[in-house]
Design goal:
Blueprint (H helix, E strand, L loop, with lengths): L1 H19 L7 H15 L3 H28 L1 H8 L9 H16 L3 H27 L16 H17 L7 H33 L12 H17 L5 H38 L11 H20 L3 H49 L9 H6 L4
Helix pairs in contact: 1-12, 2-3, 2-5, 2-11, 2-12, 3-4, 3-5, 5-6, 5-7, 6-7, 7-8, 7-9, 8-9, 8-10, 9-10, 9-11, 10-11, 11-12
């Protein structure tokens, strides 16, 4: 029995290693898939959108299982990420993924499923928003906090804006609570804007004082654009809410700023593309699949949805058309990331099966204990 347990542990080693090293930002897979599904739904591609919604729902459930498994079985690795300023903000992808999924389910007219997700997202946003940044402030490794600043920090702002969208979408189903929903939606949008400005300042100071190597320019830096794009979508949703005192007061300010945010997001895209050329073409950093690639898929999808939403709201056909083209690009990048992820999963599965085969062959070659029935005879049920 003990030997069988050892063999089983040996076979599962590649899977356990993958879980132990699971990126805390993997919920960006749900974010990217969900927001592209929203964009396709807005343009009338219901079937394709439904397929992506199904993928997002399955990925969301699987990732929760894997994250809980990691938190229980690999606590050292899990809490090391929680205390790592370069990784801790990636946990906010859980909040954003929950809210993006809720928004897509609202479009599917399933408020009984979407509403609990909004509440879960709100609770996680509140807890994470006060607990996780404290880990950064308490980091004492002899280095300046600025040296740890990277693109994942923008996900904090994204989580806040995603909650604003979820609250705005939930207002029609919360009769008698519209006042508080409007207040919280404006609050989360405002906090998201403030967080974006703060993180952008930190990132600029980091680049000015410590520079940025090609290896350090990773896909999450695209969230600097995506955070502005989601602020546009959140602003459009807040402005479109039913009248409440807070919404009425803030609508003029929000309505004026979303156009500015969209313009800055569009301005950042050529800069990010140029940085990608600098990283991969000039400095030859290999372009291969990494889990953080989903943090690049989401901003592209979000910019497409932001452009479509803004174009339809303010009757700007050119902006809406830019959104349609951007959605095609986002779907293409999503496909590439999905292929890369499936290949990674396939490699892990093959490694586990190859270990299983090697273990079986080794067990077959091992001499049987005296008096034991040989395996072949036991399986066939016969004897000489």
């Amino acid at each position: 029995m003990a030997e069988a347990a050892v063999v089983t542990q040996h076979r599962l080693a590649p899977v356990k290693q993958a879980v132990a090293q699971l990126s805390p930002g993997y919920f960006a897979l749900v974010m990217g898939t969900g927001i592209i599904s929203v964009g396709l739904k807005d343009l009338g591609f219901d079937s394709f959108s439904g397929v992506l919604l199904t993928i997002a729902l399955v990925a969301y459930a699987v990732l929760w299982v894997l994250f809980l498994w990691r938190a229980i079985a690999f606590r050292r690795e899990f809490f090391a990420d929680v205390r790592n300023p370069e990784k801790v903000f990636a946990f906010f992808t859980i909040v954003a993924a929950t809210d993006v999924l809720a928004v897509r389910l609202f479009l599917e007219e399933r408020p009984h499923v979407a509403m609990p997700l909004v509440f879960v997202g709100a609770g996680l946003w509140f807890v994470f928003g006060y607990v996780l940044p404290w880990q950064v402030l308490m980091a004492r490794d002899g280095k300046s906090v600025l040296t740890h600043t990277n693109g994942t920090w923008f996900i904090w702002a994204v989580a806040s804006q995603s909650l604003a969208i979820g609250l705005a979408q939930s207002q029609p189903f919360l009769n008698g609570s519209t006042y508080w929903v409007g207040l919280l939606a404006v609050l989360s949008w405002s906090v998201g804007v403030a967080l974006y400005l703060a993180v952008a300042l930190f990132v600029m100071l980091r680049i000015i004082h410590y520079g940025l190597t090609p290896e350090e320019f990773e896909p999450p830096y695209w969230v600097s654009m995506g955070a502005l794009a989601i602020a546009v979508v959140a602003g459009v949703n807040v402005v479109g809410m039913d009248s409440t005192p807070m919404v009425d007061v803030a609508s003029a300010i929000i309505g004026g700023t979303v156009v500015i945010f969209w313009c800055i997001a569009a301005w950042l895209i050529p800069m990010l593309l140029g940085a990608g050329v600098w990283r991969h073409w000039i400095h030859k950093v290999p372009l291969r699949y990494v889990p953080t690639m989903w943090s690049m898929v989401f901003p592209m999808g979000m910019f497409a949805v932001a452009s479509i939403s803004l174009g339809q709201l303010d009757a700007l056909p050119i902006v809406e058309n830019i959104g349609k083209v951007s959605l095609v690009v986002a779907v293409t990048v999503w496909t590439m990331a999905m292929i890369g992820m499936l290949r990674r999963i396939s490699w892990t599965a093959r490694a586990a099966f190859s270990r299983a085969g090697a273990a079986d062959r080794e067990e077959a070659r091992a001499p049987a204990p005296e008096g034991a029935v040989p395996r072949e005879k036991f399986r066939s049920g016969g004897s000489d």
